[in-house]
Structure formats: C-alpha cells, structure tokens
Design a protein that fits this description.
single chain; alpha+beta; OB fold (Dihydrolipoamide Acetyltransferase, E2P); 3-stranded antiparallel β-sheet; 4 helices; 30% strand
Length: 122
C-alpha cells in the first residue's frame, strides 16, 4: 500500500499522497449532528386532518401546518422521544398523542342552526 501511495499515478499526474495533501484544505469534515442524522430511520406518512400520524400503531401529534401533506419522519426506533419531521432543513418535533388530554380540550363549537326559523311558518 505504501508503494502505491508514494508512486506517481498516471491518471492524476502525482502520487496519491501528494494529491491528497493538495486537496486536504478543501475537504470538509462532517459535523457529529449531520453524521448521526444520516443513520436515523426514515419513513413517510400523510398527516391526517386532525394533525396526527401513526407509526407502529401509535398516534403522534404533528404541527398543524402539515395537515394533508406527506412528511418525512426521522427517528431512532428505540427512542421515539427524539423523532422529528425534517422539512426544508428544519426540524419539527412530534409527540405521542395524549388521547385523554384531547378529550378534555375545549373547542370552538360552531353555533347550531335553528331549523324552525328556516323556510316555513314558525
């Protein structure tokens, strides 16, 4: 290996070692965060109208801006607490749906229609 790296290579007009040393300043080292992100699991899901997705039969809340969109979720299978949506280079966290909390959420109900006032005598 040492002989190969110190012998002139006809394709590059230099030894591989010399060529490496010339290009060394322009080689970018990846960040730890980028490298770890490369090894995350990736799945695509369509966000439901209630702003949830399902992964392995578990429901997760996602930001409302993604309703009816397909999103890419990145995660570690053994640590769903760090799962996120990657969209245009930004991370958007997801969290397990709290079904008990959702049933107590106050909602803005639309006023009911009084059908007795529509068409006909009262």
């Amino acid at each position: 290996m040492r002989t190969y790296n110190t012998s002139v290579h006809s394709g590059i007009g230099a030894t591989p070692l010399e060529r490496y040393q010339q290009a060394r300043s322009s080689i970018r080292m990846p960040t730890r965060e980028w490298l770890e992100e490369c090894f995350l699991n990736r799945i695509t899901r369509k966000v439901n109208k209630d702003s949830t997705i399902s992964i392995d039969k578990v429901s997760y809340d996602v930001p409302m801006q993604f309703i009816s969109s397909k999103v890419e979720i990145r995660f570690l299978p053994d640590d769903m607490s760090s799962a996120f949506i990657l969209y245009e280079g930004e991370h958007y966290p997801i969290r397990p749906t709290d079904k008990n909390g959702n049933c107590r959420t106050k909602r803005n109900n639309t006023p009911s229609i009084d059908y007795s006032r529509i068409g006909g005598e009262g």
